[in-house]
Amino acid sequence: MTNQQLYLRSRHPLFIQAAGRLRLKIESGEWSAGSQLPALAALQGDLGLSRATIRQALELLEEEGMILRQRGRGTFVRPELKKRRTHALPVDWSTLLRGLEDLKPRLMAPIRTVPAAELHHLLAGRAEGSFTWMRRVHSHTAEPYCLIDIHVAKELFDAHRDALLNGPVVLILAECPTAKLARALQRVTFSSADDVTANALGVALGAPVVEILRTLIDDEERVLAHTYARYPGEFVRLDFEFKVGGPSAESGEETK
Length: 256
What we know:
Layout lengths: L2 H5 L6 H14 L12 H8 L3 H13 L3 E4 L3 E4 L9 E2 L4 H7 L4 E4 L4 E4 L14 E10 L4 E10 H6 L1 H6 L2 H6 L6 E12 L2 H7 L6 E11 L4 E10 L3 E2 L19
Helix pairs in contact: 2-4
């Protein structure tokens, strides 16, 4: 399959797709820090795109601080690239709660009240009445790592407004006895950054993102909160430990 056919599979502009391919060469170490990129003609032959498109891609990488273009000398990977940030996605409840400690939220839009009908893609439970909606960026340091849309049952939000405005919703509801949190469900999917996500997280338009839906419900199956978070995909990792030698999932017998 030709490059052109591959590019047509994406809805993103050609220069963004080209920038993604060049960015991967840098992040993978194929083009090391301080090294010179191939000449424009060589990149054109490798990518199968026009010179104008490749120039746009290089401009984007320059804006991101990944390359340095020097007139008369060529284009170079920056000698001191930003240290690659990583964020481990939680795979169990205790890890999720620990990861929310020291979180710093920042509102990105005015808070508003919405009807339960506006909650989409619930993973369980019944959404009733009204919910308070917030859009925030979360950071552990000065650098943002997550853009999140949050819906909290209005009566809960009104009762714990200060805490919910200044802290992680999941952690606050987990520690709140009146919330009667009974279950939390999570779904992880992979997508690409739209303009809102790209601007909030400082990533390229069309860059890979990890999307996480979480629905928190009480002991009567009512939705307490529903969140939709987006993380930069290239900075996310999933760590698992597999127990070896346990009971067989198929036979129920111990593995010999």
